[in-house]
Amino acid sequence: MNIASATEFGSNQRKYFELAEKEYIMSMSENKIKEGDKAKVSPMLTGEEDWIEGEIIDIENNPFKGIVIAIKDNLGRIFFGEAKYFVLV
Q: What CA–CA distance (Å, rounded) separates 78 from 88?
């Protein structure tokens, strides 16, 4: 029986999430997102109960966080964060 230690498990889990994030960022860039597109932002980023829809107002390639997106909703609020928190509408 092969049982992984907590350290091995954590390392494997971290590698999985890093790979999943890279694949997600690549898929976002393949979709050629651009300013003016509609997107929804996750409640995990906003702290709200539901996803919030808005217009993409800025996209930047941050050397530390990867692709960072900013949207503005119909109330004038601006939300920004890593691409993993956004879904194109």
A: 16
Query: Is 90 exceeded by the pLDDT of residue 2?
Result: no
Residue 2 structure tokens? 């092969």
9 φ/ψ angles, rounded to the nearest 5 degrees: -60, -45
Spatial separation of the C-alpha atoms in residues 80 and 57, rounded to whole Å: 10
Q: 39: buried, middle or exposed (CB in 10 Å: 19+, 13-18, 0-12)? A: buried
Q: What is the pLDDT of residues 3-24, one digit of tens each?
A: 555 555 556 666 655 655 555 5
